[in-house]
TrEMBL record:
<keyword id="KW-0732">Signal</keyword>
<dbReference type="Pfam" id="PF06521">
    <property type="entry name" value="PAR1"/>
</dbReference>
<protein>
    <recommendedName>
        <fullName>PAR1 protein</fullName>
    </recommendedName>
</protein>
<feature type="signal peptide">
    <location>
        <begin position="1"/>
        <end position="24"/>
    </location>
</feature>
<feature type="region of interest" description="Disordered">
    <location>
        <begin position="156"/>
        <end position="176"/>
    </location>
</feature>
<dbReference type="InterPro" id="IPR009489">
    <property type="entry name" value="PAR1"/>
</dbReference>
Amino acid sequence: MASHIIPIALLLSLTLLLPTSSLGANVICEKLPQNLCSLSISSTGKRCLLERYRKSGESTTNYYCKTSEVEVERVSGWIETDECVKACGVDRMAIGISSDSLLDSQFTAKLCSPACYPSCPNVIDLYFNLAAGEGVFLPDLCETRRSSTHRSMVELVSSGSASPVSGDAAAPSPAP
């Protein structure tokens, strides 16, 4: 009897650890709150878009979520996790997205980071397609970014501008 409890407990704990985005919930873009709209995929496999509007004569801007015509292969019923939003440096309240963000080195650093790239397939799929629309292969962009960062670090250390941090080499020299 006890041998059956362990697999059931393990299965239950793994289910609880899964992000809510991967549970295949019934996602209808028009029913999502504005703070979950962007980076979500409807149950029909279409991306959700955050839109804004102003009622005639009002000064406040209102937001609503709608289903786009953009279909996502292999994923449906997905609401991106807060962890991926933070790790990838994306904004749920962004109105429209642009490939211009791929020119921002701080953004691409987050997008290509180990916390985002292998862990957040929905965000990566979105920016992969944006990059492709500009004739750029996102994996190559990330690899170039990683190798140029590595090259910059090597150049910095070899120039003597950076000093080692470990061992006695980091300690100040005694006065003569």
